[in-house]
Amino acid sequence: PVLRNRLRSIRFIHSDVGFAFDIDGVLLRSKTPIPGASEALKLLQHHKVPFILLTNGGGTLENQRTEFISKALDVPISPLQIVQSHTPFKTLVPKYSKILAVGSPTVKDVAKTYGFKEVIHPMDILRYNRSIAPFSGTTDERLLELSEEIPNLDKTPIDAVLVFNDPRDWGADIQIISDVLNCQDGYLNTLRKENQSKPSIPIYFSNNDLLWANQYTLNRFGQGAFRIIIETMYASLNDGKPLENVVIGKPTKVTYDFAHHILIDWRQKLLDGKTNVTDQLLPSLGEEPTSSPFKEVFMVGDNPASDIIGAHRYGWSSCLVKTGVYRDGDRLPCVPTMITNNVLEAVRQALKV
Ligand code: G3P
Ligand code: MG
Questions:
Q1: Which of 160, 275, 284, 352 has the highest CB neighbour count under 10 A?
Q2: What is the ipTM score, two decimals?
Q3: Ligand 1, closest atom to CA 224?
């Protein structure tokens, strides 16, 4: 068996096979590890098969997220091995200086660490004037805790709205986003005259998941549901004109291209024995890899509308697991390469071990 294992390691060391793992519903359910997840990743590490985590989740920095997962699954994972929904926003730093970062309160720090010069959260706008969102669900006490007073909030324009993860105070967030999309040149407290598809400032959504799976028995609304509300409100306020916006995250090609670059880069680091380095070359948004060393990449996911259709359209193999959003008998947008009970079964079946 020792020789067989060694032969296997040699067979996979110059791997032309790679994996991308979804997190929620595949490796974790909320913060709890899913049975088989740890073994699945250990198996790949043993065989030196390159893999990354490709999630539509976010809200924390890449290194915070991999640190948590490494501990939870007892597998060392580098911050260079993860693409969160908002990781590609890093490439927008040179483009926008003052942004409205929407999502959990933690996204403000994420955006600042990415390098955005001025970062405003909807809670800061609410603090500046409570009447902006009269039906906000945030208490005064919580608002003081979560927000800061930002000088000249209304004196300089906001350049873009970036939705980092699922908003937390939908009432306030919908109102504030709507205000800035329809304002004059990015200035708060103003209202532009013309109705048009192009908003006053660009808006980016980092994922389009209508539903996601948490501890509750039924699937819950995700950022995709929030986007539908924003678009509906925008069209209602603009003579039915549809909102021009950018959506990234799975299943978009933009995110699969981005993830493909990261997976190629990680494979090279594995081959070079440089997995401890921290520098990573980021592709620009929408840039296709010119070539790929992979014969086959497996996307392991629980959400047919995100992981599976995204992989299918991108030309990757897809492994649909039954530990998250998908339930036996649900309608599928395409035929997955395989359907397995869990992530460990998927990895074993893909590697034929
Ligand atoms: O859309 C919510 C998010 O939690 C989904 O994460 O890892 O299943 O792509 P993931
Ligand atoms: Mg998932």
A1: 160
A2: 0.97
A3: 1
**Other C-beta atoms within 10 Å of 335: how many?**
11
Q: Angle at which helices 37-46 and 62-73 pack, to 10 degrees?
A: 100
Q: How far apart are the first and last CA of the chain?
A: 13
Where are the strands (E) in the chain, listed by range?
17-21, 28-29, 32-33, 51-54, 82-83, 98-102, 118-120, 160-163, 203-205, 211-212, 220-221, 246-247, 296-301, 317-321, 338-340
Alpha carbon of 323 to ligand 2 centroid (Å): 9
> What pLDDT digit, counting tens, does each position of 54-91 carry?
999 999 999 999 999 999 999 999 999 999 999 999 99
Rounded Cα–Cα distance for residues 319 and 21 (Å): 10
In tens, the pLDDT along 250-281 reads 999 999 999 999 999 999 999 999 999 988 88
SS3 per-residue string spanning 313-350: HHCCEEEEECCCCCCCCCCCCCCCCEEECCHHHHHHHH
Residue bearing the CA closest to ligand 1, atom 3 = 57
**Residue 230 burial (10 A CB sphere; 0-12, 13-18, 19+):** buried
Ligand 1 binding residues, C-beta < 6 A: 22-25, 55-57, 207, 209, 212, 222-223, 303
Task: Give the number of other Cβ atoms within 10 Å of residue 133's Cβ.
Answer: 21
Ligand nearest to the CA of 166: 1
CA distance 199 to 178: 9
Largest CA distance in the chain: 75
**Ligand closest to CA 249:** 1
Q: What are phi and psi of 51, to 5 degrees?
A: -145, 155
In angstroms, what is the span from residue 301 Cα to ligand 1's centroid? 10
pTM to 2 decimals? Answer: 0.93
| Structure confidence at residue 8 (pLDDT) | 52
Q: How far apart (Å, rounded) are the C-alpha atoms in residues 340 and 78?
A: 27
Q: How many angstroms separate the alpha carbon of residue 7 from the centre of ligand 1? A: 36
Structure tokens at 157: 């324009």
Distance 286 CA to ligand 1 centre (A): 21
